[in-house]
UniProtKB/TrEMBL annotation:
Keywords on record: Copper, Metal-binding, Signal
Gene3D superfamilies: Cupredoxins - blue copper proteins
Taxonomic lineage: Bacteria, Bacillati, Actinomycetota, Thermoleophilia, Solirubrobacterales
Domain of life: Bacteria
Name listed for the protein in its UniProt record: Blue (Type 1) copper domain protein
Amino acid sequence: MQRSLLTLLVLGSGAVALAGCGGSDSDSGGDTAQTAATAADGAVQVTMKGLAYNPKTVAVRPGQKITWVNDDDVLHDVVSTSGERIESELFSNGKSFSFTPTRAGTIAYVCTIHPGMEGTVEVR
Ligand SMILES: [Cu+2]
């Protein structure tokens, strides 16, 4: 009962916002993944959340560091299946792993304990 009322309120306010402002920037919060992808120093962050890498594909230059941060309550790792070798330990919530590719190419990687949890690093 409470939950469905909340859902209605959320959906309702979303519809009002959509109808009310013609295409202005969304300020709904809670979805910071896109803007957080590239830090000021050029490092790229991939968040591990909901048994997925976000963003799933990142494009970097050789020498540009990538940091994976585990935002799930289960362990994850980063192990490449093609391209340059990446092999992290399993790490827990709040922990991170960084890798800096040295040459151009495509790196496909997976989490070894979660089937379907896959990502790609495009190095150009
Ligand atoms: Cu995993």
